[in-house]
Known about the structure:
By secondary structure, the chain is α/β, with parallel strands linked by helices. The chain has one domain (2-103, 135-146). Helix content is 48%, strand content 14%. The protein has helices at 13-22, 33-37, 76-87, 105-116, 120-155, and strands at residues 2-7, 54-58, 64-69, 94-98. Strand 2 (54-58) and strand 3 (64-69) form a beta hairpin.
Amino acid sequence: xxxxxxxxxxxxxxxxxxxxxxxxxxxxxxxxxxxxxxxxxxxxxxxxxxxxxxxxxxxxxxxxxxxxxxxxxxxxxxxxxxxxxxxxxxxxxxxxxxxxxxxxxxxxxxxxxxxxxxxxxxxxxxxxxxxxxxxxxxxxxxxxxxxxxxxxxxxx
Length: 156
C-alpha cells in the first residue's frame, strides 16, 4: 500500500505524521525540538518541492510512506491522487491523508515565517512549539490512518 501524508508546505505536519507512522519518533510522548529537526524534510523545503511526492520510508508492513506539499489545494489533491490511482488500476492501494486539519496557528505562522519569508530564526521556535502542541492530534490521525490501512487490507 502507498500512504501519502500531505499538507500545505510538505515540511511540518505531513512529515511529522509520516515520522510517527514510521516510528522515527515515538508516539508515547511529544518529541524534543532536536528530534523534530532530525525528521527528514522537517522545515526544509523550497518552492520547487511543492507537488513533489517524497519517499520517507517503509513501515513494518512494507507500506510505502510519502509526504507532499500541495499549497492550498486542500482535499482536491486527495481526489487527484485517487483519480490517478483509479486510472492505473491501483486506487485501493493508495491512501492520501490530509494533515491540515491538525495544524494550529503557531504552526501556520511559524512555518510561514520560516519557510515562506525565509526567517527561520524567528519562525522556527514558534513552529516547534506549535508542532509539539499538535503532536497528540497527529498521533490520533496516524492511528486512524493505520486502522484504514487494516480495513483496506481485510477487504482486498
